[in-house]
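Might I ask for a little of your time on a matter of protein folding? The record follows directly beneath this note:
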Amino acid sequence: MKKTVVLILLVLSAQGYSQFAKSMFSKDPIINLENWQKQRLYFGYYLGFNSFDFKFDYKEVTEDIQVKKTTGFNVGVVADLRLQEYINLRFEPGLYYTKRDLHFSGVGNSENDYLREVNSTYIHFPLLLKFSALRTGNIRPYLTGGLSTTLNLSSNSKSKDDNFEGTFRTKSWSSAYEIGFGIDIFSEYFIFSPSIRGMFGITDELIRDNPGQASPWTDNIDSMKSRAILINFTFH
């Protein structure tokens, strides 16, 4: 499945790059979809990749928890509302999948003790402002930023088991702010928009282990917040 998604994105990226090259190096480019972004409201969809991490803050100075990141994937839809010529309001709900392995140094002697796999399936709800530059030929760069809230379908938040039973728990809902940039490339039939964003969590996601005995996994953690790099390929 991942190989198929990668192949599709590579083909679409190559097509987008071809349009980009023509727009950049042609003396008199044909202006594609000249009035498309003058619409009040339009829609699209995106596919992409992500790399999620955790930022830990500790109550006492100690050896850091090591996070092994993997590359996940994103898929979603876009609703774009034109506020004025250079500013748009965008809603980009999507499904994000990622996996992180946490290594707790000094906890036990086996993987069952010191290793926790955190598989996350997110329903992501970002509300963003898009600030576009002047269009040059068939390209238009932009900056974007805003807030997002996320529902983690794999949080284990309702589980009564904790790390002593091998279950690492996180909260179902979290919030973050996002900033990034991208470029609109106007082809003959659609707009191709590659973009990259940073996502920075602002709420603590950790559910501490049950009281009653000292926990080497969660007692020293003051906060645990997600952060991520999101790469999306959007089509309008």
The beta strands are 41-58, 66-69, 71-84, 87-91, 94-103, 115-132, 139-152, 173-186, 191-201, 221-235. The radius of gyration is 21 Å.
